[in-house]
Amino acid sequence: MAETVFAERFLEAMKKNGMKQVDLLKAAESAGIKLGKSQISQYVNGKAVPRENIAQFLAKTLQVEKDWLYGKNEKKDVKIEIEEKKGNSAMREFKKSTKLDNVLYDVRGPVVDEAARMEENGTHVLKLNIGNPAPFGFRTPDEVVYDMQRQITECEGYSASKGLFSARKAIMQYAQLKKIPNVSIDDIYTGNGVSELINLSMSALLDNGDEVLVPSPDYPLWTACVTLAGGKAVHYICDEQSEWYPDMNDIRKKITDKTKAIVIINPNNPTGALYPREILQQIVEIAREHQLIIFSDEIYDRLVMDGEEHISIASLAPDLFCVTFSGLSKSHMIAGFRIGWMVLSGNKNMARDYMEGINMLSNMRICSNVPAQSIVQTALGGYQSVQEYIVPGGRVYEQREYIYKALNDIPGITAVKPKAAFYIFPKIDVKKFNIVDDEKFALDLLRDKKILVVHGGGFNWEKPDHFRVVYLPRMEVLQEAVGKLGDFLSYYRQ
Ligand code: PLP
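^ thats the input. predicted complex w/ pyridoxal-5'-phosphate below
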């Protein structure tokens, strides 16, 4: 396929020139060429080939022939006789690992770097980009803080690698409430946030070329960790027309003999979707048919609105091997304490060797942050202060009501109403605004209106027609932000 040939040659030429994607982006910017990060990653991943003018620019920058990049001739004619700098005077240069070449993590990417530069120069930036509750006035419940204080002197040493007994027992009981089957205390691993465990679980599983089904849009750490572990993240579509639920036909189409697992994010970041039982059952059926592991990221499971119930997919799949992830960063507003966990459940006979790999990696990192483990029992039991936020009159609920309506009132913007978490993923009418590059859209919005959002490409969404808004800021701030966005879109054209 033309895309595959292009990707191979493009990567080869980048390597010979010692250039990374970011260098090409910078070169394009200085040359006044419109080229976004998501476009480059599509070329690298063999999902698209560039138009003539872009290919010409890339060929020139990489000192190869355009036709060779397209695979039209075999002659490289590369003037890539890169100067071999030898001798004592040359400085040795350290480059980042090539393992990171295809890893994207734009939630904290170039647009955020620009925002940081603006802030350093004294500009106030309205941040709607990151799901970090504390800076928006969502405080840790007092009891959690008191209990950590009381136990801090007992947390000076390492804990068992998987975590303190009290923490794991509380997580196990929580798993029982969620009807997750066949979970013993040994099946629970605490981590420095869910993030560490996503990384660990992918590293322990994947060999080069193994495929994992990951949603698009996704929380990009999943794709990044699959890629870093040598695997291939194969994205299945979540369908905006159907409340952002996973598209079963698309999932089926993308399964190959290399597919080992499917990831679901429920409730979802960035869409705010909550999957009903029927959808989960359909995913289980597919996983059952193809003997896939189910990884379910449920970190927002207690931030569900409108009286809906969150169902753990593992509760529907006792015969499959499931790994369920959760933590206290969101529901208890203590993202900075860094505490999350994963629960292995269901048919463990399928995964004995994999579990050994998980244990090895868990032991290698010694243990997770012990003071944070010490408050898991307090946080999970008893009164759940988060409840107040997600009912009418509560901050998360009212802010969701506002942002949903206000965004839909802007001509050219439509958004599905989120049912959970604190994100909304609006669609932009790209024809109306002539938008071809969503990262540029986010950058222009930042420069013009000092508002920071993450473009859809940052969530492995291929079309340039979405962006994510975090609606954690207080109502007045959201009102100001939406006002400015509306004004921006009244004149913006790309
Ligand atoms: N999973 C999802 C879906 C998230 O949105 C986030 C953070 O935004 C994480 C995992 C990371 O959570 P933690 O703070 O536990 O590392």
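The first helix runs from residue 2 to 17.
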